[in-house]
Amino acid sequence: MKKFLLNLIFALIIFAAGAWVGDKYGLPCCNKSCEAPESAGESLVALVADGPNIDISTLPVDEEGFITLFDGQTLNGWRGYGMDVPPTSWEVADGAIHLKGSGTGEAQAEGGGDLIFAHKFQNFELQLEYKISEGGNSGIFYLAQEVKDAEGKEYLPIWQSCSEYQVLDNAKHPDAQLGIDGNRQAASLYDMIPAKPQNAKPAGEWNQAKIMVYKGTVVHGQNGTNVLEYHLWTPKWTEMLQASKFAEGGEFPYAFNLLNNIGGENHEGYIGLQDHGDDVWYRNIRIKLME
Asked: What is the 3-state secondary structure (H, E, C) of 180-193?
């Protein structure tokens, strides 16, 4: 009996020592309590990987102080997200930037991708017109970053780093019925704040869009009416993120950190047009800097 007790005590000492060594130095553990935490549910830090940008001082400025971002004839100044040139899915047709729909939704087509204007903006008023196809979905991104995963291997989707002004056929695209209180309908801050009143024109008709960003205050306008307002870098902004699909520890582990510090260190970012696989047109794109 005495020998049995001594052996038992010795075994317990070896067990405890192995657990402590495994826990302290990352070696395999022999009990459940010292297992490393799973990576799922953790927020990760992305790497900024900006591509080439342009000098906007040479661009035309109208009498109201707006800089022309699209000349109506070429894609000069525009390139693909994470690219040096525009994706082949985008073209200029009848004075508008046109996405040639692939019919594959977010999967996009070969040669597809989101289009960005190659300059970062901080405080501004952006004005443009959009026309969505029947059953179509797209979006206008702003304060976007070009970012890669923590290992620098591949670009993250642009929407994980920025706000999105939703562009949608409210009548036929199912996204209009998803989300909360219409916050995925046209001109909404996608999946976060609904546009009210909802005054989008039907598919195939031109809509006027406005996005104003000034020291964290953001306003969306549609067809001459301001439809929502919110404030970046505030506790309320963080609260809204936590209640959305971008919540900390959620399905998209990079999104929360990026969006909670949207615009990065300098609070500035790219303007982008979304390739969601559906035909969409944008024209009369201009921006006024607000200092």
From this structure: CCCCCCCCCECCCE
103 confidence band (pLDDT: 50, 70, 90)? confident
Residue of 108, 94, 182, 105 lying closest to 136 (CA atoms): 105
8-state DSSP, 89: T
- How much is the pLDDT for 41? 52
Mean pLDDT for 21-26 is 32
**How far apart, in whole angstroms, are the C-alpha atoms of residue 248 and residue 93?**
41
Q: Rg (Cα) of the chain, in Å, rounded? A: 24
Residue 111 Ramachandran class (φ > 0 left, ψ -120 to 50 alpha, else beta): left
Task: Write down the pTM of the prediction.
Answer: 0.85
In one-letter notation, the amino acid at residue 104 is T
Beta bridge partners of 244: none
Are 204 and 131 in contact by the 8 Å Cβ rule? The answer is yes
Q: Which of 184, 165, 155, 167 is nearest to 244 (CA)?
A: 184
